[in-house]
Amino acid sequence: MEGIRLHDQKQYAAAIKKYDTVLNIDPVNLVAQYEKSYSLMASKNYKEAMLLSQAIIEHKNAEPGMIGNAYSTWGAALDEVGDHKGALKIYDEGIRKLPDFNMLNYNKAVTYFRMNEMEQGIGELKQSLLKNPHHPASHFILGQIMYHRKHKIAALMPFLAYLLYDNKSKRAEAALTNVRAIIEGDEKKPDSGKHTVELDVLIRAGRKRVTADDDFSSMELLQELGAASAMTETKDMLPADRFAYLLKQAIRRLAEAKGHTGFYGTFYMPFFTGMHRKGLTESFAHLIFFPSGNVMNEVWIQDHREQMEQLGAWTQAYQWPVMKTRMP
């Protein structure tokens, strides 16, 4: 426990000394090995982290979660020293032993991104989410990639899911900033006061890419036009209320959309459809607006505790479409 406290204070060398004190008494103490491997990784002692991870994997009393994390540490250490192919091999070995352990797919995605193998990385993020839909980082990174590719609706859904599970961190602030840019339409305001819609959205909306899993061009066009047309109606609203109004409209469009049978359509869209039908989108909007630090939004949340409790109960009970095998 002293070692863990020191690790949390980023005193990794001191933490390792504490773990070694335990290991000098009990050389195969699994908890001490497990915690020491994290401190070794944090202090960039990758070689020892790999050796210790292998020892944990071979430990007869190691639980599946520990073994999965040991494979993750081993692979991450290889990745850090530049052996990306070696890291992928270790992750695959771990996945064969622990096919439901999502962190191996997540870390495998990170390695693929470092190798500039973007499509393979995206596929692994999807696998991570299908195994553990409550993993915030998988939602966030998928949202970031789609956002930078300018697939705004495909970015919006994972960002919103991420903010459901984390609405207090610096990363949450970044996610909310991108969500606001999407639902507020990235409006450009010329001197004439007219609103313009981004040309690339109009161009992509005219292309027939119906087989693309992240193709929501028609919905993006509606989103852009909807945000622009709502400017007059919402100009006198408080920021949190305006955000809630626009997000409700965006989620309604998701709920009404048809024909999306790829990952986004089968994994994310049923969640937002269910939320819309339950009338919980306003509460959800105020919940995920929390990273803005807006005082009036916090007042709204305090004044609508019953609605927030209903949202919490529904989201906790919601069954994501978890799959234990790779999607075709």
Write out key terms for the chains shown.
Serine Threonine Protein Phosphatase 5, Tetratricopeptide repeat; 328 residues; 19 helices; mainly alpha
Shape: elongated
Number of helices: 19
**Beta strand count:** 0
Name given to the CATH homologous superfamily of the domain at 1-132: Tetratricopeptide repeat domain
Q: What is the radius of gyration computed over CA atoms, rounded to a whole number of angstroms?
A: 23 Å
CATH topology of the domain at 1-132: Serine Threonine Protein Phosphatase 5, Tetratricopeptide repeat
In words, what does this structure look like?
The protein is mainly alpha-helical and 328 residues long. It has a domain at 1-132: Serine Threonine Protein Phosphatase 5, Tetratricopeptide repeat (Alpha Horseshoe). Helices cover 71% and strands 0% of the residues. It has 19 helices and no strands. The chain has helices spanning 2-8, 12-25, 30-42, 46-58, 64-80, 84-97, 102-114, 118-131, 136-148, 152-165, 170-183, 199-205, 217-229, 231-234, 239-256, 263-277, 281-288, 295-303, 305-317. The longest helix has 18 residues, at 239-256. The protein is elongated. The protein starts with a helix and ends in an 11-residue tail after the last helix. The model is unreliable at 187-211 (pLDDT under 50).
Please write out the topology.
Elements: H1 2-8, H2 12-25, H3 30-42, H4 46-58, H5 64-80, H6 84-97, H7 102-114, H8 118-131, H9 136-148, H10 152-165, H11 170-183, H12 199-205, H13 217-229, H14 231-234, H15 239-256, H16 263-277, H17 281-288, H18 295-303, H19 305-317
Helix pairs in contact: 1-2, 2-3, 3-4, 3-5, 4-5, 5-6, 5-7, 6-7, 7-8, 8-9, 9-10, 10-11, 10-16, 12-13, 13-15, 15-16, 15-17
